[in-house]
């Protein structure tokens, strides 16, 4: 790969029918290997930003380039193919299919991408092992704890070795100990080189997981700070502390 950024947004704006724009001229660049948190209160445009990067929605103006692909110019089929090949996503509520076993959930992206059955199975079992949930391979998601379900979702997201992992409030539905497990998992993945974009309203999660925090206010970048390292979480938290109510 070249030195081109993993994510590059230029003057990216998203307007819905009425009201102010959900994203208002966002320009930002994320390099391969970064773990960046997108921080902002509810309604600040975080999910809109994520959807544009994932090719799930189109900007009203401006460009979205990911891993060299002009995502904003893709058609429906191209955009689905791009997501399968380049993007892994995890969500607050896991989005697993309850009618499928853990293993079958993890296999879905490989099947959609046309990976051979044997290879897909090997990779899925290996990922479940790495994530410490291989003993649940034949269980159904509803039998698992929240933390275990999020691990399954992470395995599924990693199935096609995505260039970019997008996480939308991945610890939002978890108890504090499971949330800490998932946070450490993200740290491990990033240490192995995985580029991660973490969307959250949780200042502490952002400060202790990402090494860079981009804060959105009313759809615009209000702050873009490279932290002095995740170990210096306390210092970061101090610089990010704002008047009560502004950022949760
Ligand atoms: N499909 C939509 N139609 C109209 N307005 C929307 C739509 N999606 C989001 N918005 C608006 O865009 C703004 C940003 O929303 P969103 O990106 O979901 O924020 P966040 O994820 O930070 O909570 C909000 O004002 C929201 O109401
Ligand atoms: Mg959101």
Automatic annotation (TrEMBL):
Domain ABC transporter positions: 7-243
Pfam families reported in the protein's UniProt record: ABC_tran
PROSITE patterns documented for this protein: ABC_TRANSPORTER_1, ABC_TRANSPORTER_2
GO cellular component terms given for this protein: membrane protein complex; plasma membrane
InterPro entries per record: AAA+_ATPase, ABC_transporter-like_ATP-bd, ABC_transporter-like_CS, ABC_transpr_LolD-like, MacB-like_ATP-bd, P-loop_NTPase
Keyword tags: ATP-binding, Nucleotide-binding, Transport
CDD domains linked to this entry: ABC_MJ0796_LolCDE_FtsE
Domain of life: Bacteria
UniProt-recorded Gene Ontology molecular function terms: ATP binding; ATP hydrolysis activity; transmembrane transporter activity
Protein name stated in the entry: ABC transporter related
Species annotation: Catenulispora acidiphila (strain DSM 44928 / JCM 14897 / NBRC 102108 / NRRL B-24433 / ID139908)
Lineage of source species: Bacteria, Bacillati, Actinomycetota, Actinomycetes, Catenulisporales
């Amino acid at each position: 790969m070249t030195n081109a950024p993993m994510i590059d947004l230029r003057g990216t704006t998203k307007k819905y029918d009425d009201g102010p724009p959900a994203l208002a001229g966002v320009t930002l660049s994320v390099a391969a290997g970064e773990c960046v948190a997108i921080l902002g209160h509810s309604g600040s445009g975080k999910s809109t930003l994520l959807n544009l990067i994932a090719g799930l929605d189109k900007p009203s103006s401006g460009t979205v380039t990911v891993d060299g692909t002009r995502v904003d110019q893709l058609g429906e089929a191209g955009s689905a193919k791009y997501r399968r090949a380049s993007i892994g996503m995890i969500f607050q509520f896991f989005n697993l299919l309850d009618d499928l076993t853990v293993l079958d959930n993890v296999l879905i992206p490989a099947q959609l991408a046309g990976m051979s059955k044997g290879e897909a199975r090997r990779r899925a079992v290996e990922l479940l092992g790495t994530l410490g949930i291989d003993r649940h391979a034949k269980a159904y998601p509803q039998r698992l704890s929240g933390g275990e379900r999020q691990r399954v979702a992470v395995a599924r997201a990693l199935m096609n070795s995505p260039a970019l992992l997008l996480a939308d409030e991945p610890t939002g539905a978890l108890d504090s100990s499971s949330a800490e497990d998932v946070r450490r998992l993200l740290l491990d993945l990033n240490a192995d080189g995985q580029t991660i974009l973490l969307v959250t309203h949780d200042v502490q999660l952002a400060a202790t997981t990402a090494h860079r925090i981009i804060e959105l206010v009313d759809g615009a970048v209000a702050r873009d700070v490279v932290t002095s390292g995740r170990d210096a979480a306390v210092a970061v938290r101090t610089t990010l502390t704002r008047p009560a109510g502004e950022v949760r």
